[in-house]
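Private note to self, pasted from the team thread so I don't lose it. Backbone tokens:
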């Protein structure tokens, strides 16, 4: 079993910050805590952050990740930033719909659409 921390990649492009989750599965509490530390450090380093979370590699996630996303959202908006989610698989998107998180998060099919939706 791979016990390494979940991996993210962070890209800074045209004034935007794109965090891509690189693990296929985000299930274990220890992984989610590591993700929280990694993502929050990026968020806390900038005000008025334009952040896109890219889920293109993620096929499975636990409900605890949904709580993490809510905490991320709260922190971004407290710092007067903007948050978009993109490339969520249909299975995971269904969970967002059932839990009504589609009413909270702005979710786009592609990274390009997410970029275009961010307001100057």
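Design output:
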């Amino acid at each position: 079993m791979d016990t390494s921390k979940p991996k993210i990649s962070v890209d800074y492009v045209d004034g935007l910050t794109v965090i891509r989750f690189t693990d296929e599965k985000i299930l274990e509490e220890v992984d989610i805590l590591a993700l929280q530390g990694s993502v929050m450090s990026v968020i806390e380093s900038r005000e008025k952050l334009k952040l896109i979370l890219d889920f293109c590699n993620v096929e499975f996630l636990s409900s605890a990740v949904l709580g993490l996303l809510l905490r991320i959202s709260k922190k971004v908006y407290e710092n007067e930033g903007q948050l978009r989610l993109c490339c969520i698989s249909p299975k995971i998107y269904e969970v967002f719909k059932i839990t009504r998180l589609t009413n909270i998060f702005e979710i786009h099919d592609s990274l390009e659409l997410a970029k275009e939706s961010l307001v100057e």
